[in-house]
Design brief:
Shape: extended
Structural class: mainly alpha
Helix content: 55-70%
Distance between the termini: 66 Å
Strand content: under 5%
Order of helices and strands: HHHHHHHHHHHHHHHHHHH
Largest sheet: none
Number of strands: 0
């Protein structure tokens, strides 16, 4: 008996047909590096509809993994702090584009190691105590945090332990150091969550490393589509809109550090999604001495991105030899030459139109000048064509 005609449960039929949302989710996780962007886009749409856009983005960017059969200590730790995370959703990624639901917490939080969970738990518990204390009034202040550590002297866990008994509002430099340390340890997700949480808890303090830069660094490396197609680039466009010269200070070391983060966030979008205005970010970098080659590289990418033409990744999938390009150019030149030789014979109803057409075909006139570089295979004539178009 065909399974479609049997009395199988509808969910089982979807599983057998590879159409169940969980099957689509696992497929997206397994094939996220596939060059078939159309299929990835379809899978992302199905997963986003079933589980929410945050889970779809996490799966596409490699933040979801297949769990082991045994229940790890990390899972037990998550379960123990789930109530805290649900209660204080400020440690979760928030934006107008991404709003996490309670049902999605497990999917995204599982990416963080035990150290990261303990760090969030410790910071949030201390922060909550400060907020619940009615005698603790947040005073308006702008903290100068331009001191970038030149050497990593300790890890994130030790920094958190040192902050447990301190007043977070008075420990802005240490918290900023912790965020930089998390970035150094390649824990960008936790660095963003911590920075975003601090911005919400202390709205009167201007942090010099804003959370949007960290998020842009995380998402910038996963851009595949132009604005209006992928959710990631829409978020990046909003993040890049927050850029201003006020991010830079009089300290060369700080300017170089913030410029490296901005470059990491904008290089790929400038090529694949130039309408995010990533090229504007690259044009304002202050990399300082010793990085002149990187600076010129960023400028070259910015010049391309400023033309607003997304790089066609399909065209560069297959590397072609110079002989193949020459053969194609020879065929094109032959086709253009044949067309041009028959152009004067083109029949027209209106006599005036025929006169204009004939004039255009004459030397140094419109059609003649446009086709001449192709007929002669002369790349130096491109400038002349650009003047006409």
């Amino acid at each position: 008996m065909n399974w479609q005609q049997s009395g199988l449960h509808p969910e089982v039929k979807l599983l057998v047909a590879d159409e169940h949302p969980f099957v689509q989710l696992l497929t997206l996780i397994s094939l996220r590096e596939s060059p078939d962007y159309q299929r990835l886009e379809n899978l992302q749409a199905v997963v986003a509809q079933s589980f929410g856009m945050p889970v779809a983005i996490a799966a596409l960017t490699g933040k979801l993994i297949f769990p082991s059969d045994s229940k790890s200590v990390f899972v037990e730790t998550i379960e123990s702090i789930e109530a805290t995370v649900d209660h204080n959703d400020k440690v979760i990624l928030e934006s107008e584009k991404i709003q996490l639901k309670d049902s999605n917490i497990h999917s995204l939080v599982r990416e963080i190691e035990v150290l990261e969970v303990n760090t969030v738990d410790a910071i949030n518990s201390t922060t909550s105590q400060e907020i619940e204390d009615p005698n603790n009034q947040i005073q308006t202040q702008i903290q100068n945090q331009a001191d970038v550590p030149t050497q990593i002297q300790t890890d994130a866990q030790e920094i958190v332990i040192s902050l447990l008994d301190s007043n977070l509002e008075e420990s802005q430099n240490a918290l900023q150091y912790l965020i930089w340390q998390l970035i150094y340890e390649d824990k960008g997700s936790l660095a963003f969550n911590l920075a975003h949480c601090l911005e919400i808890e202390f709205p009167n303090i201007r942090f010099q490393l804003p959370s949007w830069i960290i998020r842009a660094v995380i998402l910038g490396g996963h851009v595949r589509y132009e604005v209006g197609i992928g959710e990631i680039v829409n978020i990046l466009m909003d993040d890049f809109a927050n850029f201003s010269e006020s991010l830079f200070t009089g300290e060369d070391e700080w300017n170089q550090a913030i410029s490296l983060l901005l470059a990491a966030s904008a290089l790929r979008p400038a090529l694949l999604a130039p309408n995010t205005n990533a090229s504007d970010i690259l044009n304002h970098l202050r990399l300082g001495g010793g990085l002149s080659q990187l600076f010129e590289y960023c400028r070259a990418i910015a010049d391309y991105g400023s033309q607003r033409y997304a790089l066609n990744t399909t065209a560069i999938k297959t590397v072609r030899s110079q002989q193949e390009w020459d053969a194609d150019m020879a065929i094109l030149c032959q086709q253009v030459e044949e067309w041009f030789s028959h152009a004067p014979l083109l029949d027209m109803i209106y006599g005036i139109a025929k006169v204009v057409w004939t004039e255009w075909l004459q030397s140094n006139n419109l059609i003649y000048s446009l086709l001449l570089p192709v007929r002669k295979n002369d790349t130096n004539g491109v400038a002349v064509v650009q003047q006409y178009v």
